[in-house]
């Protein structure tokens, strides 16, 4: 055979394959989501998310130390309150669950970087992501509630806030209130391109945040659309978002690619609860090799253009990256 170009030449051994990898990733780009609940002595496994837990505040420091020891440096905190009402007022309460968790975390495990999810759905009695007007979320009435919640997180110690509600104008509202209160340096990571997705199913069970009627399609995006995702990402950057997120991840690789080629801020991808649950379930059946699938999925999300990966597999991935198995 008279062949000059032989792609297999670069696949000949491990050292060479690692040398020419096109996608590089590091554990510092991983964010681990965690759920905190009221009560004591609670470390309950979430049934549809094996290996993920609800932690009460007394159990939190140990769990946070475990995250830090695994090599993951950032967490994304979700609170599950014991009191809900129409407007979700425990979201911004001084002694709200996230606020208390932040004070404990920052004191006991200060080496972690604390990001909070800013949304109303865990806190409202109807499970929607804002204040209602009739049967729909009132966008403009919800903005001050979100802004207030973000400010209370930052005042309790949050290093970064991540609004996940998908109201129009919320990044600007949050930026304004943070700036007015002396938090000009606190970054915002917006869930900019967030789809109305069935992949959030296990999370809604975990966070007790399923809407009691209807769905989230009037505020979260239609999964047929990608250009609209660019519009959302650009708008959020204009309003002051420091990072933008695409969510879910695996079914939205094209969107991650397009957004990362368009915006000039870091792009985060959230590999959500349903993606995690599918891998766990198939692995429990012995149908797939869990570690191999986790590595391949993560690398492909970075390859699509993500700079940051939010994943329930963060602790395992930190190890795989450290070992050089991927990255
Ligand atoms: C809150 C929020 C949701 C998720 C993150 N923040 C649920 C939703 O929008 O219904 C989903 C995360 C996951 O599925 O892992 N709005």
From TrEMBL:
It catalyses: 2 5-aminolevulinate = porphobilinogen + 2 H2O + H(+). Keywords: Heme biosynthesis, Lyase, Magnesium, Metal-binding, Porphyrin biosynthesis, Zinc. One of its GO terms (biological process) is heme biosynthetic process. 5-aminolevulinate 1 binds at residues 204, 216. The keyword Magnesium applies. Its EC number is 4.2.1.24. One of its GO terms (cellular component) is cytosol. The active site is at 194 (schiff-base intermediate with substrate), 247 (schiff-base intermediate with substrate). Its cofactor is Zn(2+). Pathway: Porphyrin-containing compound metabolism; protoporphyrin-IX biosynthesis; coproporphyrinogen-III from 5-aminolevulinate: step 1/4. Zn(2+) binds at residues 119, 121, 129. Mg(2+) binds at residue 232. The keyword Nucleotide-binding does not apply. GO terms for molecular function: porphobilinogen synthase activity; zinc ion binding. InterPro entries: ALAD, ALAD_AS, Aldolase_TIM. Pfam families: ALAD. It comes from the Bacteria. 5-aminolevulinate 2 binds at residues 273, 312. Belongs to the ALAD family. Homooctamer. Catalyzes an early step in the biosynthesis of tetrapyrroles. Binds two molecules of 5-aminolevulinate per subunit, each at a distinct site, and catalyzes their condensation to form porphobilinogen. NCBIfam families: PRK09283.1. This is Delta-aminolevulinic acid dehydratase. It comes from Fusibacillus kribbianus.
